[in-house]
Amino acid sequence: MTRVIAALNLNHNGDPDAARRLIDAARVAGADGVKLQKRTVGLAGVRGVLERPMVRWAGLGPSYRKALERVDLPAELIAALRDHARDLEFHLAPFDLEAFHQLRGIATLTWKVESALTAHHPLLEALAGHGAPVVASVAGCTHAEVDDVLERLGGGVTLMHSLCMTPFVGTVLDVLRLQALLTFGRPVGYADTSLDPSLALTAAALGATVIEKTLTLDRSQPGPDHAQSLLPAELASLVARVRELDASAGTLRAPGLEEMDDIDADRPSIVAACPIPRGAALTKEMLALKPPARGLSARFLSTVLGRRALYDIAEDDFITFGMVEL
Predict the structure, then answer these.
(1) For 215, which DSSP code?
(2) Label partner for 131 (CA 20 to 30 A): which of 92, 180, 251, 271?
């Protein structure tokens, strides 16, 4: 089964009620889990970055530091959100060691390593020592770097192929890189910020065991992820399609009504290759296989051989069980 994780990230904009509503929306949509991020503001960048004016999302604060101070939820509130999530998987993505230590006491969680942190060895080793499952996004990593991530995280790791783009311009060709992760012998996942569900569905078809999609309640809100996040109804549609894909994967089905006309037009039936008199035993020379599918299927050819005709049969008549001895 492919699990769908609704990445809330910072789309709550620091509002605890919005975070709860996002969790509720993820549950109603049928998602399997939710993900939140946690930063220590003082470690989120050098002073020049933190004091840089916030131009694009000025509604969050006058500077990057002030915006982060607004949107970063305290650990005790995240713990309360864990309780609110109840049966949902709860993925947490710490961006630094201090954030990890604040979150490590929360029960029943899965750690998420964001793509930018795959070289943060102290953080990887701390996550490995905690013992909870880990999902590690490895966008931009070479084969050797993925090996390094796995060596430091140890067992219980899902490798996630992610496309980190703003604006998003990924294609199915980018999704196909997920196949390279399968060679590491670990479960694989996929994440992007595309509003097109086909890329995530392609990943699921390729073997992704977890799909991560960002979720928002309003794309017009200020913030880095809102504009490229799914709305609740869109997430519900994606979840439904992933479930359909899971149900059909590895199985064959009968053709649908919309396919039958084309299939039957070319599917051969057993027909008389020549006039066949009543009482004659059917031989290969008397029979031919020709479309459309109106008589016995070609698979019954060996079954009717040697059977006697119950009636006179004209050339090109479709052979049925009612025309031969049983």
Answers:
(1) B
(2) 180
Q: How far apart are CA 163 and CA 273, in angstroms?
A: 60
Return d(Cα 284, Cα 239) in angstroms, integer.
53
Q: 22 with 215: CB under 8 angstroms?
A: yes
pLDDT (0 to 100) of residue 170? 82
What 3-state class would DSSP assign to 144? helix
We find that the CATH architecture of domain 257-323 is Alpha-Beta Complex (3.90)
* Helix or strand (DSSP H, E) at 287: strand 287-290
- Kindly state the average pLDDT of the residues 57-79: 93
The position carrying tokens 């196909």 is 176
Instruction: Check pLDDT > 90 for residue 323.
Output: yes
The rounded distance, in Å, linking the Cα atoms of 215 and 221 is: 12
* CATH superfamily of domain region 3-248: Aldolase class I (3.20.20.70)
In a 3-state reduction of DSSP, which class is residue 312? coil
User: Using an 8 Å Cβ cutoff, are 249 and 11 in contact?
Assistant: no
Residue 260 is predicted with a pLDDT of: 76
SS3 25: helix
Residue spans in the chain of domains classed CATH 3.20.20.70: 3-248
| Helix, strand, coil percentages for the chain (3-state, nearest 5) | 40, 20, 40
Q: What is the pLDDT of residues 135-159, one digit of tens each?
A: 999 998 999 999 999 999 998 899 9
CA quadruple 38, 43, 45, 49: dihedral sign: positive
Give the residues across from 135 on adjacent strands.
Answer: 112, 158
Question: Is 37 strand, coil or helix?
Answer: strand
Residue 224 has what pLDDT?
A: 87
